[in-house]
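name: query_chain
kind: protein
chains: 1
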Amino acid sequence: MATSEEYKREIMQDLSRGSVEKLPEEQPVEAKYQSFDDFANRSTREERHRLFSDSLQHDRIPPAQMEPELRKAIEQIKPNERDDVAREFLKHFKHIGLSDRDLESRLVLSTHHASKMNADDVAKLASFAYHSHPDIFRDVLADKPWIVKFLSNPVVAGILGIAAAKWLSSRR
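structure:
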């Protein structure tokens, strides 16, 4: 067994020769998952938020393109999931001082109760968040990532394709 002094000498010799032991690099988020569904189910909220923040920039898609996509996506989700999405948006808006009644009036919603909102109401909430409060939009997507699967617009797909390309390249 080497003494403390011998061990220090060995380390100093290794360092002087440029011999260093590297720590394993952390795998990028995208490399850990097989598909978007796998990512949506197993990733942490922070990983999802970081990915959506990087790949979904609200200023890249004009309202005329995003609003119909959000409406179409929200119409495709199950009513109980739609309620969950509405609750998430309302919860986040409440944190910034916008009450459900304020939003009902401002966005001309049919109700201020998340459980009674129709697809059109939830789409209005999502669209408002996307354009006026993109941080809230990304937070809700991080909490409910399966919504992304229902977005089909080529522009949206192109932006989210950044993430898909990372997954595909890391899987090869």
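note: Residues 23-27 have pLDDT under 50 and may be disordered.
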